[in-house]
Amino acid sequence: MKVALLGDAQSIHTIRWANGLASRGIEVHLLTIHPVMHPLDSAVVVHRLPLKAPWGYLIGGFLIKRILKKVRPDILNVHFAGGYGLMGRMSGFRPLLLSIWGTDVYKLPHKTPLHYRIIRLNLASATAISSTSYCMAQAAGKIFTHSTVFITPFGVDEGMFRPLSLTRNPKGTIVIGTVKALRATYGIDTLLEAFALVAERALRNNIDVALEITGQGEDLHALRTRAHVLGIANKVTFHGAVPYAKVPEMLNRLDIYVALSRAESFGVAILEAGACGKPVVVSDAEGFLEVTTEKTGFVVPKENPQAAAEAIWQLVENAELRHSMGMAARAHVIEHYTWLKSVDTMLTAYKTTISQ
Q1: Residues 6+ apart with CB under 8 A from 133
Q2: Structural domain span for residue 64
């Protein structure tokens, strides 16, 4: 099989799909406006388009049409229903599988009536749609109800994301943390509020706790300020962004993983933490609900630091519960969300789309 991927090469998600397909012996051609920012399998052929977003999307369809005519792939898999979706539609190539990512169906269509119309046309023109979650597929269906939709979860490399033996704090500090971008939608402010309540309770019970936040974003200054106001700055570490290859190490520094997002289309970060054997406390954002069970973690209402603090505390004071939930989380990933299963699911979507 020969597959053309059209998407943002700066994204680790795009690169993981390209590498995963190449590892299965698929001939992969990656068409992109953006530079490759992560290690890419040498077998993947990159076609860098001499364009710049956003206006480049308007003429990109004509350029990729020429490339596709030369490459002659069996299928074009477009990632993201926005600019790249427009390019895919304008290329006129079929069969076309459009993979939606989240903001392209949750936020982008509601910016302006023009954005809505473009996204709707992009969805309608695809041979089939793929979504990492059921809730995201439902969101896309509110824009355009497509006859063929595949659920293709974005899985985890359980060999890369696994429990590691790291040197722990000799004082026995319980480390709570997250690996998320520092943006309002991800609820890091709620996490700080919850941790402040946990830290106060821990002090009364002579337990040492710390909070580690890995990621970067426009809210960094505001979050640092909030930590000072809450009186927890000395217990909070902002690590900044780390390379994807180092994420397992950052997760293994933690005893409890927390994600209190206001909105999520899927919970790949939850699965990565679970694969590392970490129990989780998550908000009831739709994407998290699909990947979290009562055996793997606690689900709390969005924007409710009191509820989050109570759930975190149950794990802080109970080492056995932390261990059992963490092991259940890894077993859950291995049973349902390994990367090999994800690639197999995508290949099935390709074969079905090609046959239509």
Answers
A1: 151, 153, 265, 266, 286, 287, 290
A2: 2-155+339-355
For residue 346, being part of any structural domain is answered with: yes
Please tell me the distance from the alpha carbon of residue 74 to that of residue 354, in angstroms, as a whole number.
7
Confidence of residue 53 (pLDDT cuts 50, 70, 90): confident
In a shared domain, residues 288 and 151: no
The CATH code of the domain that includes 34 is: 3.40.50.2000
Angle at 244 between CA 350 and CA 296, to 5 degrees: 80
Contact 194, 312 (CB under 8 A): yes
Q: Rounded distance, CA 90 to CA 231, Å?
A: 54
Residues linked to residue 97 through DSSP beta bridges, in sequence order = 77, 128
Mean pLDDT of all residues in 6-12: 96
Task: Please tell me the pTM assigned to this model.
Answer: 0.91
pLDDT in tens, 97-153: 999 999 999 999 999 999 999 999 999 999 999 999 999 999 999 999 999 999 999
Are 132 and 272 in the same domain? Answer: no
